[in-house]
Structures are given as C-alpha cells and as structure tokens.
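Task card 7
Instruction: Convert sequence to structure tokens.
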Amino acid sequence: ALSIIQRHLTALSRTSISAPVRLLLRHQLLQPGQSFFDYGCGRGSDVAALKDYSVDASGWDPHYANDNALSESDAVNLGFVVNVIEDPAERVEAIRRAYSLARRVMSVGVMLYGSETPGKPFGDGFLTSRKTFQKYFSQPEFKDYLEHVLHEEVFMVGPGVALVFK
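Output:
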C-alpha cells in the first residue's frame, strides 16, 4: 500500500449511531444480550453506543484499535471501510475476513457517488485533498460487488448499506 494514503483520517467522530448499525437495530438483527463486532471501528463510537444498549460490543481498527482481538459475533459491521481501502485485493480480503466473523449477519456501508467531484482519480477511486482514498459505488454496483466477493445474496437496506446473512 502507498504510504501517502492516510486511511485513519477518514474515521469520523460520531455523535449518533452509524447508518449500517442503525439498520441492524431497526430490523431487530441486533438486540441487548447479543454480540457485535465492528471491523474497522475507527474511533469506536458505535461500539460505545451499543454497550450502552447492553450489546456485547467490541471492535478492531488498524489505526485506532490495532491491539483488539478479532472476535466472532452474532452481528458484524464493516462500516465505511471498503471505500477507504485503495488496494482492490486488500478490499476483498477485508470483506471476506469480516464476513467470516459473523455468526448471523454482516452489515456493510459504503459511500455512494455524489454530485460533486470527489478528488483526483487514483486507482479505481479518488485521492482526496486530505490524502485519503475513496472508492464510490452506485447502489446496484455495490450489491453486485459484494455478491461477487462473498458468493452470497446481498440485501440493500438503505443508501449504500447492505446486509448479508449467514
């Protein structure tokens, strides 16, 4: 991977639960007493919020929580990770590894194409002014991509948010 890419700068400080995790809760796929693992948890705000909700939540992140163990869980989230990995092979590996940890369901969130020009073309995505990488998807492209990588049926449950069941 190129050292110029600053992946960790894409980690947001959130005040609310992220869209993929919110959809797990809304569809009652994650409830108090169940386990949750956030693969690429960033600063850990979803993990903290779910612990407050009595979910057995943990997470791993290559920058912010590298010492944490990867743990098999009822629900696994891969939220806004796929779109910040500039290496296509590593992207596939992250999806497969996260899915391998899921006992029941995995939620995946990515950035969809917007109207504005996102940055300079770089690989199969864009290099932003902050030296982060972003790969954008259309909704059908994202569904097809995940189905191709996992060989599983993918359910689109929100803009750029997919669920994949075990």
